[in-house]
C-alpha cells in the first residue's frame, strides 16, 4: 500500500494522569449530583416533580457518571501521546473525539507550564505551546513534573535558536 | 523636516475637536431615552428619567476626560499610546509589527474634519490589549500617520537625506501625503453603479429592522409611550386584524421583504459608495469606501496570506460574491473590525474572481493560466462518506427538533401546526444537505491551500501555504468509522484557522504534507490498516 498514515507520537503521558482525569470528571459529576439532591430536598412535597422522577434522574446521572469516570480515563490514557523533535511538536489527544496537532518548533511563540490545584495533588503538570495562530495552541496534559520541566527547557532552547518573528 | 522629527518624539494629543464630538455622541446614543422624556414630559416620569439624564452627563464627562488623558507618539521604532485616568497605561507597538491601518470617519467626524485611526498588528491580535486606537485625529494628521506607519519605502531615506541632510536617517521620513503621487498607485477595482442590484440580496437591512425595533422598544419602555393609543398605529392594527390569517401572513412577509430590500440597498449604497481598491508602489493595498461614514483601510501586501470569497445563499442565487482579505492584523468580521478586511463589496462573481487574481501574490512556479488561479481552480470533492455525513447530520438535527416539537405538542399543548410545519420541511433539509456536500471541496494549487464549505453562507478560502503554521487533524468517533477527518490549517492571518471538513484521512495527510513540506515527514509511516 502506498498510502502513508500518521503514526502515534512516541511518548505516553504519566500513568497517574488516569487518576487525575478520573478525579476531575468525578468532581464535575458530584456537583451535578449534589444539585439534584438539593432539588429533591427542596421539592420534598413533590409539587414540581414526583419523587420517583427525582430518584430516576439521580439513578440515571449516577450510572452515566460511573460509566464516564471508569471508561474515559482509560480510553484517554490510550490516546494521549506526545513527541517533541528538534523540528516539530506533535501531540495526540482526546478520547471520543481525537485530535492530532502538529506545529513547527520554528514558529513557537511561548511555552508555558501550568499546575492546577488538582494537578498539584497528583504531582502532574501540563505544557502549553502557542504559536502566532490563536487556533493552534498545543497542550500536553498529564505529564509528571520532571518531564514537563524537561520539555519546557528543551522547547525554549530550540525555539530561541530559530530566528524570525514567527508570524 | 526637522520640525517633523521633533514632533514625532514629543507626546501628541488627539484633536481637541473631540471635546465637541463626545457629548454629541453620548446624546445621540441616549436619544431614545431623551426622546421618551420629551414625549412623556415630566408629569408621568419618576426618578427613572433623572437617572438616565445623570447617566448621559456622566458619560459625557468621562468621554471628555478621555481626551485629557490620551496622548500618543511615534518614535523611530515604536508607536506608543498613553491612556487611562486611574490606571495609566502605555501601549507600545513596534513599528515593524504594524500590518494594517484603518482610518474611519463617521458623519460627525467628517463635519469637523476628523478621523479615527486604528492600528492592527500581527501578534497582539490574540490578546486584545495591544490594539491601538486613536479617536480621533484631524483628517490630515490621520492620513499622514497612515503613510508614516505603512509606507516604509526603501527609496525614501535617500531622497530625504538629499533634501535635508540634517534629518536623522533613522527616523522614517514622511512619504509624500497620500494622493499627491497618483503615479505610485494603480487602481484594481472601483464601485460600479450597476452593482447596486446586489444590494437587496445582502440582507444587511435585517440589522436595520433590529435597530428600528430596538429604538421603538426603548422609546416605549423609557418614555412610557402606549403604542396602542397612537392614532396611525391603531388604524393600521384595525385594518390588519380584519384580514384572514393567510392574508395576514402574506402581508407581514411582503412588508418585511420590501422594507429589508430597501434598507439593504440603502445600506449598500451608503457603505460601499465611492468604493476604490488601489495598490501602492510601497507594497500596500488601499481600500476606501463609504458615503456618509468613510473608511480607508491600508493592508500591507507582504502580510496578505490569501483571500476569502463568500457567497451567501441569496447572493449566490444572483451570481454575486464578496471578497475579503485573509491577512495578519485584521481579524475577519469581529467587533469594530467588521468589514475591515473587505476587498470587494457584493459584486458579480466574475469581478470578485478577477480582483482576487490581481491581489493574490503570485507564488513562484505558479503558471499564469486562468485555471491555476486559487479562486477558480477545480476542487476535489470529498466523496460518498462525506455526503452520507452531511445527510445524517442534517437529518439528525431535524429529527431532534421534530421530536422536541412533538413532545411539546403531546405534553405541553403546543399547537399541532408547529410539528406539521417541521415535518413538511423535511425535503428542504435534503436539499440543504445535498448543497452542503456540493460546496465541500479542497485543492492545493500554485502554492495555495483552497477550501470551500457551507450552503447558506458558502465560503471559499485560498490560503497561502507559506502562511500555514501547523495542522490540527480532528476525528470524532463517527469520523473515525467513516475514515474521515477535519483538517485545520492554523495561521496567524484572518480567522486563525481554516478547515477542510470531512475529508478522507489519507487525502488530509497528503494535503498537510504537501502544504508544509517536511513538517509531517518524521511522523508518517506506510499504512498497515490502522483502525
From TrEMBL, chain A:
<keyword id="KW-0472">Membrane</keyword>
<dbReference type="Pfam" id="PF03703">
    <property type="entry name" value="bPH_2"/>
</dbReference>
<feature type="transmembrane region" description="Helical">
    <location>
        <begin position="48"/>
        <end position="71"/>
    </location>
</feature>
<keyword id="KW-1133">Transmembrane helix</keyword>
<keyword id="KW-0812">Transmembrane</keyword>
<protein>
    <submittedName>
        <fullName>PH domain-containing protein</fullName>
    </submittedName>
</protein>
<feature type="transmembrane region" description="Helical">
    <location>
        <begin position="21"/>
        <end position="42"/>
    </location>
</feature>
<dbReference type="InterPro" id="IPR005182">
    <property type="entry name" value="YdbS-like_PH"/>
</dbReference>
<feature type="domain" description="YdbS-like PH">
    <location>
        <begin position="77"/>
        <end position="153"/>
    </location>
</feature>
Amino acid at each position: 500500500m502506498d498510502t502513508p498514515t500518521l503514526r502515534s507520537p512516541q511518548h505516553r503521558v504519566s500513568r497517574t494522569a488516569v487518576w487525575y482525569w478520573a478525579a476531575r470528571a468525578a468532581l464535575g459529576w458530584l456537583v451535578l449530583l449534589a444539585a439534584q439532591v438539593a432539588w429533591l430536598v427542596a421539592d420534598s412535597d413533590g409539587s414540581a416533580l414526583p419523587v420517583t422522577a427525582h430518584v430516576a434522574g439521580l439513578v440515571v446521572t449516577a450510572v452515566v457518571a460511573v460509566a464516564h469516570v471508569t471508561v474515559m480515563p482509560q480510553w484517554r490514557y490510550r490516546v494521549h501521546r506526545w513527541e517533541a523533535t528538534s523540528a516539530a511538536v506533535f501531540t495526540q489527544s482526546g478520547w471520543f473525539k481525537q485530535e492530532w496537532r502538529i506545529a513547527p518548533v520554528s514558529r513557537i511563540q511561548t511555552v508555558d507550564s501550568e499546575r492546577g490545584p488538582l494537578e498539584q495533588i497528583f504531582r502532574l503538570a501540563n505544557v502549553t505551546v502557542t504559536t502566532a495562530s490563536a487556533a493552534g495552541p498545543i497542550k500536553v496534559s498529564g505529564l509528571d513534573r520532571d518531564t514537563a520541566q524537561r520539555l519546557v527547557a528543551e522547547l525554549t532552547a530550540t525555539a530561541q535558536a530559530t530566528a524570525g518573528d514567527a508570524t | 523636516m526637522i520640525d517633523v522629527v521633533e514632533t514625532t518624539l514629543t507626546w501628541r494629543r488627539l484633536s481637541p475637536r473631540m471635546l465637541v464630538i463626545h457629548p454629541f455622541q453620548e446624546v445621540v446614543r441616549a436619544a431614545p431615552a431623551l426622546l421618551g422624556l420629551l414625549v412623556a414630559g415630566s408629569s408621568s416620569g419618576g426618578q427613572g428619567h433623572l437617572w438616565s439624564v445623570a447617566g448621559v452627563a456622566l458619560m459625557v464627562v468621562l468621554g471628555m476626560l478621555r481626551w485629557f488623558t490620551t496622548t500618543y507618539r511615534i518614535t523611530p521604532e515604536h508607536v506608543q499610546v498613553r491612556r487611562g485616568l486611574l490606571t495609566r497605561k502605555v501601549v507600545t507597538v513596534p513599528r515593524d509589527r504594524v500590518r494594517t491601518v484603518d482610518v474611519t470617519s463617521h458623519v460627525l467626524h467628517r463635519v469637523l474634519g476628523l478621523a479615527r485611526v486604528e492600528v492592527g498588528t500581527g501578534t497582539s491580535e490574540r490578546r486584545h490589549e495591544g490594539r491601538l486606537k486613536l479617536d480621533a485625529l484631524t483628517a490630515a494628521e490621520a492620513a499622514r500617520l497612515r503613510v508614516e506607519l505603512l509606507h516604509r519605502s526603501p527609496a525614501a531615506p535617500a531622497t530625504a537625506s538629499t533634501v535635508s541632510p540634517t534629518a536623522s536617517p533613522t527616523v522614517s521620513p514622511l512619504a509624500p501625503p497620500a494622493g499627491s503621487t497618483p503615479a505610485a498607485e494603480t487602481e484594481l477595482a472601483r464601485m460600479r453603479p450597476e452593482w447596486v442590484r446586489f444590494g437587496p440580496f445582502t440582507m444587511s437591512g435585517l440589522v436595520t429592522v433590529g435597530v428600528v425595533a430596538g429604538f421603538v422598544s426603548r422609546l416605549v419602555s423609557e418614555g412610557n409611550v402606549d403604542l396602542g393609543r397612537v392614532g396611525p398605529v391603531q388604524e393600521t392594527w384595525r385594518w390588519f386584524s380584519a384580514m384572514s390569517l393567510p392574508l395576514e401572513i402574506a402581508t407581514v412577509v411582503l412588508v418585511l421583504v420590501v422594507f429589508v430590500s430597501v434598507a439593504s440597498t440603502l445600506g449598500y449604497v451608503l457603505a460601499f459608495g465611492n468604493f476604490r481598491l488601489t495598490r501602492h508602489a510601497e507594497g500596500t493595498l488601499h481600500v476606501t469606501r463609504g458615503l456618509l461614514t468613510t473608511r480607508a483601510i491600508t493592508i500591507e501586501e507582504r502580510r496578505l496570506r490569501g483571500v476569502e470569497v463568500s457567497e451567501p445563499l441569496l447572493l449566490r442565487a444572483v451570481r454575486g460574491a464578496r471578497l475579503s482579505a485573509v491577512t495578519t492584523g485584521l481579524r475577519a468580521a469581529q467587533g469594530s473590525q467588521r468589514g475591515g478586511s473587505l476587498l470587494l463589496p457584493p459584486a458579480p462573481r466574475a469581478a470578485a474572481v478577477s480582483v482576487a487574481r490581481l491581489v493574490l501574490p503570485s507564488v513562484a512556479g505558479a503558471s499564469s493560466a486562468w485555471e491555476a488561479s486559487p479562486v477558480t481552480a477545480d476542487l476535489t470533492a470529498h466523496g460518498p462518506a462525506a455526503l452520507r455525513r452531511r445527510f445524517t447530520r442534517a437529518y439528525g438535527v431535524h429529527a431532534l427538533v421534530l421530536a422536541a416539537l412533538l413532545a411539546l405538542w403531546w405534553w405541553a399543548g403546543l399547537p399541532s401546526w408547529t410539528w406539521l410545519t417541521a415535518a413538511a420541511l423535511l425535503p428542504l433539509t435534503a436539499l440543504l444537505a445535498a448543497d452542503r456536500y456540493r460546496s465541500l471541496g479542497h485543492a492545493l494549487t500554485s502554492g495555495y491551500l483552497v477550501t470551500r464549505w457551507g450552503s447558506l453562507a458558502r465560503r471559499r478560502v485560498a490560503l497561502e501555504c507559506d502562511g500555514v503554521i501547523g495542522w490540527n487533524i480532528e476525528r470524532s468517533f463517527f469520523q473515525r468509522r467513516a475514515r474521515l477527518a477535519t483538517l485545520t490549517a492554523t495561521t496567524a492571518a484572518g480567522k486563525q484557522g481554516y478547515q477542510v471538513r470531512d475529508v478522507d484521512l489519507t487525502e488530509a495527510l497528503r494535503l498537510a504534507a504537501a502544504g508544509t513540506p517536511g513538517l509531517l515527514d518524521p511522523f508518517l509511516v506506510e499504512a498497515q490498516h490502522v483502525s
